[in-house]
From TrEMBL, chain A:
Transmembrane segments: 37-62
Top-level taxon: Eukaryota
GO BP, one annotated term: intracellular sodium ion homeostasis
Main subcellular location: membrane
Protein's name in the database: Sodium/potassium-transporting ATPase subunit beta
GO MF term set: ATPase activator activity
Function noted in UniProt: This is the non-catalytic component of the active enzyme, which catalyzes the hydrolysis of ATP coupled with the exchange of Na(+) and K(+) ions across the plasma membrane.
Pfam families from the UniProt entry: Na_K-ATPase
InterPro entries: Na/K_ATPase_sub_beta, Na/K_ATPase_sub_beta_sf
Subunit structure: The ATPase pump is composed of two subunits: alpha (catalytic) and beta (regulatory). Interacts with alpha subunit ATP12A; this interaction is required for the formation of a functionally active pump and targeting at the plasma membrane. Interacts (via N-terminus) with alpha subunit ATP4A (via the P-domain).
The family this protein is said to belong to: Belongs to the X(+)/potassium ATPases subunit beta family.
UniProtKB/TrEMBL annotation, chain B:
Transmembrane segments: 96-117, 129-148, 295-319, 325-348, 853-876, 920-939, 959-978, 990-1006
Leader sequence segment: none
Annotated family: Belongs to the cation transport ATPase (P-type) (TC 3.A.3) family. Type IIC subfamily.
GO cellular component labels: plasma membrane
One GO term (biological process): intracellular sodium ion homeostasis
Subcellular location as annotated: Cell membrane; Membrane
NCBIfam families xrefs: ATPase-IIC_X-K, ATPase_P-type
One Pfam family recorded for the sequence: Hydrolase_3
Gene name, Swiss-Prot/TrEMBL: ATP12A
GO molecular function: ATP binding; ATP hydrolysis activity; metal ion binding; P-type sodium:potassium-exchanging transporter activity
The protein's name in its UniProt record: Sodium/potassium-transporting ATPase subunit alpha
Keywords of this entry: ATP-binding, Hydrogen ion transport, Ion transport, Magnesium, Membrane, Metal-binding, Nucleotide-binding, Phosphoprotein, Potassium, Potassium transport, Translocase, Transmembrane, Transmembrane helix, Transport
Keyword Hydrolase annotated: no
Domain Cation-transporting P-type ATPase N-terminal, residue spans: 41-115
Amino acid sequence: MATLNEKKTCSERMADFRRFVWNPETKLFLGRSLINWVWISLYYVAFYVVMSGVFALSIYCLMRTINPYEPDYQDQLKSPGVTIRPDVYGSRGLQIYYNVSDNKTWEGLVTTLHTFLTAYTPAAQHLNINCTNNTYFIQETFDGPNKTKLSCKFTSDMLQNCSGITDPTFGYPEGKPCFIIKMNRIIKFYPGRGIAPRVNCTYVGEESRPLEVDYYPVNGTFNLHYFPYYGKKAQPSYSNPLVAVKFLNITKNVELKIVCKIIGAGITFDNVYDPYEGKVEFKLKIED
Amino acid sequence: MKVGCHASSSIHAPRPRQFGDKMSAVCCCAHCDFLSLGMQDDHRLSTSELEKKYGTSIDKGLSSARAAEILARDGPNALTPPKATPEIVKFLKQMIGGFSILLWIGAAFSWISFGIQLAQGVDSAFDNLYLGVVLALVVILTGIFAYYQEAKSTNIMASFSKMIPQQALVLRDAEKKELPADQLVVGDIVEIKGGDRIPADIRLIFTQGCKVDNSSLTGESEPQSRSCDFTHENPLETRNIAFYSTTCVEVCVPAGTATGIVINTGDRTIIGRIASLASGVGNEKTPIAIEIEHFVYLVAGVAISIGVLFFIISVSMRYKILDSIIFLIGIIVANVPEGLLATVTVSLSLTAKRMAKKNCLVKNLEAVETLGSTSIICSDKTGTLTQNRMTVAHLWFDNQIYSADTSEDQTTQSFDQSSPSWAALSKIVTLCNRAEFRPGQENLPIMKRVVVGDASETALLKFSEVILGDVMNIRAQNKKVAEIPFNSTNKFQLSIHETDDPHDKRFLLVMKGAPERILERCSTIMINGKEEPLDSEKAEAFQTAYMELGGMGERVLGFCHLYLPENEFPETFQFDTDSMNFPTSNLCFVGLLSMIDPPRSTVPDAVSKCRSAGIKVIMVTGDHPITAKAIAKSVGIISATSETVEDIAKRLNIPVEQVNRREATAAVVNGMELKEMSAEQLDEILREHAEIVFARTSPQQKLIIVEGCQRQGAVVAVTGDGVNDSPALKKADIGIAMGIAGSDAAKNAADMVLLDDNFASIVTGVEEGRLIFDNLKKTIAYTLTKNIAELCPFLIYIIASIPMPIGTITILFIDLGTDIIPSVALAYEKAESDIMNRRPRNKRRDRLVNEQLAVYSYLQIGIMQSVGAFVTYFTVYAEQGFLPSTLLGVRVDWESNAINDFEDSYGQQWTKYQRTYLQWTGYTAFFVSITIQQVADLIIRKTRRNSIFRQGLFRNKVIWVGIFSQIGIALILTYGLGHVTALNFTPLRFQYWFVAVPFAILIWVYDEIRKLLIRRYPGSWWDKNMYY
């Protein structure tokens, strides 16, 4: 069979390489003459300028077709996600552990809630209107200033005992902590089909006694006049309605698994892949 | 009667050849001493001495017990097959060869990061475990595939070499037994019949007129006679030894068998020693293996340097080391064309299959391409360039030379047959001939029938059968009454017949033989049917014709006859061949017939193809220079206008020394001259002369010639059939063994087996080899292109922190899924132009993957594909809510499990899973747009220079199979497996399939412009930089 003995020593290879980088006889730098390098570089500069232009043009065309008020598709947003505050993520999801007798363990949680609720002070909400209807707030036209739509006011005082106003510690030192449940915004989503969706928190699995919960506002409902959402551009001052839950009978020193679901037509919570769709699950352990 | 068996082996004019000649030529090589040293002096010993030496008896043979003892000592009488690489080593080589090592590194990194993440308790740790497993699986599966392909092509050969076990007739325990030949031991008494293969090296002790065909050992095609007599000091040349693997052609009738003592078995036989020499010649890399290695280095170099560069960048951008390692894996996977080596193997084996259909059986897949880069073919003459059968080529009667048809399938002869002289000549040719057709072949074409008789008589028999029809019937009508077979003293053959005319009671005496001897016995010559006195003028004409025919390298025979007068030889006359009671002089000379082993009819065309393809054809033959030159001229190896030094000397009438050697384009080199030449002189001959014939060479000298050619930097193909050819076959870049005439040893040493022994098949092989080289370029260019489109996402992901555009697993689905069939389909592409009109590629300069190919694929088409794919990516994200501006820099939050209300450009909020699912949709869209653009890439890669429209979009149907498979697989992955989350595919909205279409068209248009400019401005800057 073939015999191509091209075995070279290391120094020969190095010499070959050096000759390739700069060949003094033919005046070739990396196998090309300098003028050739200039030409090829110019060509590539031109090529990439044109390609960048093509890319920019494509993106420009794309942006021209995009509706600024609402996305073309909401394939992934069939049912809203649910989040909870305060949210502390451990290696296996939400884990809220604190010790009643140790301020440091719960002060952070309380601060989180205060910070979160700053968006719901009357001052922050002053652009929004007071709504009283218990039906969907459907706006076909742009009634707000600067071609916007109106949003309904949600202030933290609606959360009563969990507003942080009456009880700045949200019940954490007493072992009866408040949690705030928030439903993700989805444009033109009508939750509950006319019936206000409500939050329902239970233990996961068998527990000896049922979980006692206080819901704020009453019944833990999201009032329908906060829906539908018309998008950031139409409703720049929109804020999500909230539901606060206060757990009253938490057994101390035990890790409890609690799930808060949003009950309402059109909101699903049985997606096995997405633990935050229509529900939020968390572990709670209060020590003393 | 003893001499009778030697039938006309040496009556024929210019071929006085002896085995000794051949062997002395052999001895010029160093191996020869080694061969003779190994031989004992058995040929000198008498029968009784032999009996004593081997403890055997001529009448009784060995005892079974003793034979078993010796068998246990010496081992079976078989050649040790060449040491094969153990299967497991072959398999492991596939596992770590090529890109596998890079992928193993990738897998190892995946497992390391899995371990670290698991320890840290990260949710997604198992993704890395799976990725590692997938990478390992990819390596193992492609390894198994390559191993299987390799094994399959080896199996073709294995089945080829498996032969029916040979039997030998042995005398043991005073009984004759049929034993398998590998059971023979030293000292066994064996009997050999005509047609048997000699089962071991044998010292003959009883024989009558035995002849052996030593061609497998020495390349000498003329049968050698064997006797019990010690005729030469050298064991290789003495007549009383017959060698293993040679064939006993015939044994004289009365005894029917020859008897001998086995003196050497297995690897200790002469053949065994030569075979072990052959395996000593190193087995080096094929040109295509070097090219693929070069390509692997190139791609691996790019992968590693980009990987390391971005590892450093990502570390300095404060990514975690672990994340950086994961990026590194992605970059490696994106850069390595996982499916490519398998594709190359498939393409080569497809070509090998195509070549097998054209009678070239390729043992080693890579040899397919080697044949394409061949620049010198050293070809045998007999059987390869010629038909390997004597055929009547010329006739001389009535003072005129007639040419006969020598093609393979002649059914008539067209020369002028009206002369009465021809009638007389044809009668002599028919009657004075002992050859006969084997019965039962009436339905076969005459040229295919088997004949009992020697080569010349066979030629004459077939010739007369073609012209006259039923020869046997003619012979029956002219009953033979007496006969003197040929012998070397008389140099003629004579027979006396009754005539077929019932009224003519005369006897007809017919004679043929060496022309000068026949002429001596004649006093008249027949001209136009009339007997005329043979005067000096007519004798002169005879001489001229004889010289002319002899000068064409043909064997010439003279024919004469005499009607015996009725009064002297009445019907009842008893002819006595011993006392010769009939006249054998004053005969009437009728004519001459000359014979040659004619060239195969396809060969001249093939040689001229080689010439236009820049391949030098060198004839290497053991034949006489005149015959060799005549055949070389008739097939075009020496073209009509070129002259040798001797020709010029003759034309100018000056001594050979004064001729300017540079003027002679052709050279005929004698083996004897070659023996005395230094390497430099041989180099000079090979360099200076375009047309070279080596005559009278031994197979060993072939090795020297091959080495000489390789010193010129040529890729050398060598044909061979004998065992002695195997070192040359091994040494050559591609050894070609003859399938019909070839010995097993030659087939073992060769890379390719020519099933029909036809030179023209080599040329078709060359064409296929060149085509596959071109097509592999296309395949590689096609495959490399999308690597950039797979790589860019990682780079941009690292730098711009956008959500990951394409996943590692998805990349594997492109490399090993959608891209495989299209890249194989390019192997079916027809040649763009006549590939047999360009020079063979220079193995140092014309690389498979050159700078232009890599740069054009990576930096131009690859970039265009990336742009197209990114536009699709941004479109999908924008239409779902994330405008391009929002995407920049979001990576950390996007991938955070702790953020489940991630806000998009419209203020909507997304959970982690919703984002991940969108990311998969992005993968799918990116995948789909690469696939769509690869369709365009596939179409542009059909040609490198011509317009697609000239090549034809539909001529290669397999390309369309490729395109449909590509799209089909993409559809299945997207819509069929879109719900299997582990694969990271999601069903994709239909319109996203078309986002990349404008870019696909752009690629096509751009490449058409590139090709147009290349065609328009050959040799320009554009041509140099854009043609790959």
